[in-house]
C-alpha cells in the first residue's frame, strides 16, 4: 500500500434533518495511515459525519469512496465489513454482556466475522491492548467512564478496521487518563489503522493529528496543519460563535 494515498474520499457529502443542514457539501480525503482531526464547535456536524460515513444514518447527498470502492448508501453492517469502525460519543456497550463478551461479539459480527473461539482470543488481545483485561468479566455498568471509553475503542478494534472513526473518546477523562489515551491512539495508528479523530481536547489534537479539518454549520471551513488552521480567522470566529 502506498503511504498517503486516499483511503476515504467523501465528495459533496450532505445530510439534512428536519430544518437542519447538518452536513453541507463536505468534500475531503483521509489518507492512508494518517490521523485526521475533525474539529468544529458543538452542533457543527462532526458526529453526523461519522454517522453518515459509517452508514448509521442515510445520507441526503454526495458520495463516499473507501479505497476506491463506492460505499454510498450501503447499510452499516456492509460498511463495517468493508473495514470502517466507529466509536460513539456516548459509549453504547451491550449492557447485559460482560466486557469480554462485548468485544468478542464485535469480533464475531462486526466485520472480521471470526468464529467463537477465535473471536474470544481476538477479544482478549484488544482487552490487553486497552488495559481492560482485569475487567473482562465485569458488566459495562460496573466499570468507570475511562474504562467504558476504552471498551468503545476495544470494540472498534475487534472489527480489525482499516479506518477508525473516533467520536470524542477523551471527553470526561482526567489529564492522566488523557495521556494514556493519547498513547493508545498512537499505537492504534502504528498497528496499521487510519484514524479520523473528533476531539475538543486541543492538547490531544496537537499531539496526535497530522492534519485537521474544521466544520462549522455543516460546512468545511478550513483544513491543514492544526497549528496553522487554529489561527485562521474564520475558524477562530466559528469557535467564538460569530
Ligand atoms: P457535533 O457532533 O459537531 O456536535 P452533530 O453532528 O451532533 O454535531 O449535530 C449537527 C446538527 O445536526 C445539530 O444541529 C444537531 O442538532 C443536528 N442533529 C444531529 N443528529 C440529529 C438527529 N438524529 N436528528 C435531528 N437533528 C440532528
Ligand atoms: Mg458530536
TrEMBL record:
* Protein's recorded name: Branched-chain amino acid ABC transporter ATP-binding protein/permease
Where would you say this protein principally sits, based on its record?
membrane
- Spell out the subcellular localization from the entry: Cell membrane
Domain ABC transporter per the UniProt entry, residue ranges: 8-242
Its keywords, alphabetically, are: ATP-binding, Cell membrane, Membrane, Nucleotide-binding, Transmembrane, Transmembrane helix, Transport
Q: Which residues of the intact protein are shown?
A: 344 to 585 of 589
Q: Which domain of life is it from?
A: Bacteria
Origin species, per record, is: Ramlibacter pallidus
Q: Name one GO molecular function term.
A: ATP binding
